[in-house]
Fold this sequence. Notes:
The protein is of the alpha/beta class. 37% of the residues lie in helices and 14% in strands. It contains 6 helices and 5 strands, in the order βαβααβαβαβα. Ligand FNR is lined by residues 12, 14, 17-19, 78-82, 115-117, 119, 121.
Amino acid sequence: MGVKNIGIVVGSLRKGSFNKAIGQYLKDQAPEGVTLEAVEIGNLSLYNQDYDESGEPAEYGPFREKIKAFDGIIFITPEYNRSVPGVLKNAIDVASRPYGHSAWDGKPALVISSSISNQSGFGANHHLRQSLAYLNMPTLAQPEVYIANVQNIFDEDGALKNEESGKFLKDVLAAYLDFANKHV
Ligand code: FNR
């Protein structure tokens, strides 16, 4: 039995997000029998540890259950100020608690970063990997996925315009699914 149901968590809420476009492209490439599903994180209230004792925002429970139901997670993120955007870190924190009940535990992960500059989100990619290591999420090491100048790869409507990059992303998805199948 292999992985069937993979969550896509994107670190940008922007309507025309290039990172969302990468997620949509991967979703469209999913092989038969595997579903990729983008997860909403923009509705999550900022995490406050008091919630673990005093009751939590209504959206936390369904989000944690959704994450728990996935066989693996693909993170696709821009870099904000050389690190992970706050909205993504917040989602990670929300589903990591209450202590001892992390929804992320053991789920095989893929990290993709992109940017509109040459830097390709390296800082965000590796800050994210640091959290995933702590959260006990085995994470694909190779190929590393840093997408530079992403505006040359997807257009404003999210359509692929660079076939070579599309081929790379397809190969990445295949490598990740192979990796994830070894970890479930
Ligand atoms: C950025 N951007 C950016 N790019 C980069 O390569 N390194 C960085 O540290 C930052 N920092 C940063 C901070 C903030 C607050 C914003 C809004 C943007 C630019 C970023 O790569 C660009 O806006 C992308 O288009 C964001 O990804 P989405 O929204 O297209 O997915």
